Amino acid sequence: IKLSISRNGRFRKLESKSYFSYGRMLYRPSAYIPAGRILIDTVNSFNYSEGGLKGILLASRLACIPPNYAARFTPGTLISSYEVYEALKMGIAVPFRKRDAENTRTLEELKLVDRGGMIFQPEPGVYEKVFQLDFTSMYPAIIVKYNLSPESPNGRKGFLPKVLEPLLNMRIETKRKKKENPEYKGLDSVLKWMLVTCFGYTGYRNAKFGRVEVHESINRIGREILLKAKEIAESMGFEVLHGIVDCLWLRGNDIKALKEKVERETGLLTDIENYSWIVFLPMSDGSGAYNRYYGRLTDGKLKLRGVIARRSDMPEYIRKMQLELFEELSGAESVREISALKDRLLEIYRSYRNRLKKGEVNPRLLSIRRRISKLGYSRKCPELNAIKAYRNSGIRLSPGMDVSFVIRDARRWIVDPPWRASGYDENYYLKLIDKAWKEISFALKCSAQGS
Description:
By secondary structure, the chain is of the alpha+beta class. It has helices at residues 46-63, 67-72, 75-89, 107-113, 138-145, 159-177, 185-201, 212-235, 255-266, 316-329, 335-340, 342-357, 382-392, 426-449; strands spanning 11-14, 17-21, 24-28, 31-34, 119-120, 125-135, 239-244, 247-251, 270-282, 288-297, 302-305, 368-371, 402-409, 414-416. The strands form 4 sheets. The protein has a 7-stranded antiparallel sheet. Strands 12-13-14 form a 3-stranded antiparallel sheet, with helices on one face. A two-stranded antiparallel sheet has the order 1-4. The longest helix has 24 residues, at 212-235. The chain is globular. The termini are far apart.
């Protein structure tokens, strides 16, 4: 009996593709799509990793495309397909290729209008009893509230607000329900990414419903809203510690009253997270990093952003050490309790470091993953030698692919593929493990000083 995963024996091939998106070179592997069956690449599908099967089916229904494509397309393609489908339902003609160019402007005009989101730089340190005030889907909510659309609405509801409002309402509902039922987490994540990219696509030159002036207006209003929220908080006696685009970190009393007033005066919904303590890490010059922090929520969970444990390009061995250290920190409910953990944290760090120094670590656990932007590099770098090593093993590469390697000699950037590695450059990896420890020891240093 001849068996086939395809119901009629036919397959549609999706060609592999290297492409540039949001400043990065990406790669989509080729795929054979069986007729009449759903076949999902669970390893390479971003949408599946974020939303699971339920998320894929939701994206398929919204974008009016088969689940096989909903699993393989980017969130940007999903929101674009959704907008095209809604436009056709409304009887709006959609051009095959957009041709309207951005209006010519002077350098002074660009300097005035072409700005991003608002950021308030934090003072590095450890802070207790901190609240995070987060606007729910701020940019899509601005599009809907302020009726921003590529065409001139002339008093009527524009196309973008009209098609995004149902998605926004659905996201607000899934965000609320996932707190009570984890099954909604995947649905919420898919909606979040579609709404995030809908903002980015307003400034994308090839987006069918994009217009850079709309993109700039969203950014401008977003900056004004964050400033307004900051002023409201300070007028109510709160201390603003940090702010990034759509959220603020604050210390003060009566957070419920602040939330209500911000929502009333901005017209946007917010969400609150409570931290027992939070650590804002420094940059190399000592000033506060904008997007590197970690903190303990009052429910005992740790929130990590920008630290080595969150970086997929870092070796598993070093990420494992830092995650173990964070696990210990999650038991500390105050800055004083962080200080009390010093000996235990040092013990874990020294144990991992000593094994590394003695050459006792399996080289595969020290594998570094990097994305190659091209196949030819003019300078000496580990990516160049990794490409050569893969070619010698008969493996074909394309720009945008990820390669893994173990560094054998950092001075000459000699690397080995993980499956061939038999040794490693101890000094290079000792520097990495010390860097991971530094992110932890900073909290110990600040807690000892009573920050």
